[in-house]
Amino acid sequence: MRLRTGVGYDVHAFAEGRPLVLGGVNVPHTRGLAGHSDADVLAHAVADALLGAVRGGDIGKLFPDTDPAYAGADSLVLLAAVAEKVRAEGFAIIDVDSVITAQAPKLSPYRDCMRENLACAMGIAVENVGVKATTTERLGFEGREEGISATATCLVCRAD
Ligand SMILES: Nc1ccn([C@@H]2O[C@H](COP(=O)(O)O)[C@@H](O)[C@H]2O)c(=O)n1
Ligand SMILES: C[C@@]1(CO)OP(=O)(O)OP(=O)(O)OC[C@H]1O
């Protein structure tokens, strides 16, 4: 049995006039995140964790931000494509955990919906997906509310 772990990290800056999409949830807020896609920083971190585990590069390599095909893309669709790539390599996704670092808005009311969305996109059970949120006690770029970061880990396995 081959076990692999992966880690993913992403950052997006706040921008006026954009929706805030986190784990596929449209979170009510005064601003959203800038990006070529829907800028779902959580979905991107999870996708990069999966790609790391199968040595598959990163989402920038798979879905270049110079490609108009990904302009405004739903990042859950990108995550689903990454999960398919993981399975094509013969790996099953065992577990995913993540943390969103955001001073605001309050994210705990949306946590379970994000878990459901991510699990559905990856084709795994919701109990195998963790989402947490933390502030930085106003320290750093997240604390100054300049942007949001997300970190994710995963465990995958292949029967060889
Ligand atoms: N954007 C956020 C940040 C945090 N939370 C929740 O608040 C708890 C306390 O956060 P600290 O940064 O003060 O440790 C945290 O454990 C989360 O449950 C949140 O909902 N949204
Ligand atoms: C997701 C992609 C898709 O074009 O665009 P962005 O939303 O800009 O996200 P980022 O994490 O900066 O880079 C990955 C990109 O490939």
Question: What is the beta-strand fraction?
Answer: 25-35%
Largest sheet: 5 strands, mixed
Report Rg.
15 Å
Q: Considering the protein shown, what is the CATH homologous superfamily?
A: 2-C-methyl-D-erythritol 2,4-cyclodiphosphate synthase
Distance between the termini: 5 Å
CATH fold naming: 60s Ribosomal Protein L30, Chain: A
What is the overall silhouette? Answer: globular
Q: Which regions are unreliable across 5 or more consecutive residues at pLDDT < 50?
A: none
Helix proportion range: 25-40%
Would you give an account of this structure?
The termini are close together. α1 runs parallel beside α3 and α3 (75-88) packs across α4. The chain has helices spanning 41-53, 59-62, 75-88, 111-122, 140-143; strands at 2-15, 20-22, 25-27, 32-33, 92-101, 132-134, 147-158. 29% of the residues lie in helices and 29% in strands. It has a single domain (2-158), classed as 60s Ribosomal Protein L30, Chain: A. The strands form two sheets. The chain has a five-stranded mixed sheet with strand order 4-1-7-5-6. The protein is built from five helices and seven strands, in the order ββββαααβαβαβ. The protein binds ligand L45E5XJ5 and 2C-methyl-D-erythritol 2,4-cyclodiphosphate. The ligand Nc1ccn([C@@H]2O[C@H](COP(=O)(O)O)[C@@H](O)[C@H]2O)c(=O)n1 is lined by residues 102, 106-108, 133-135.
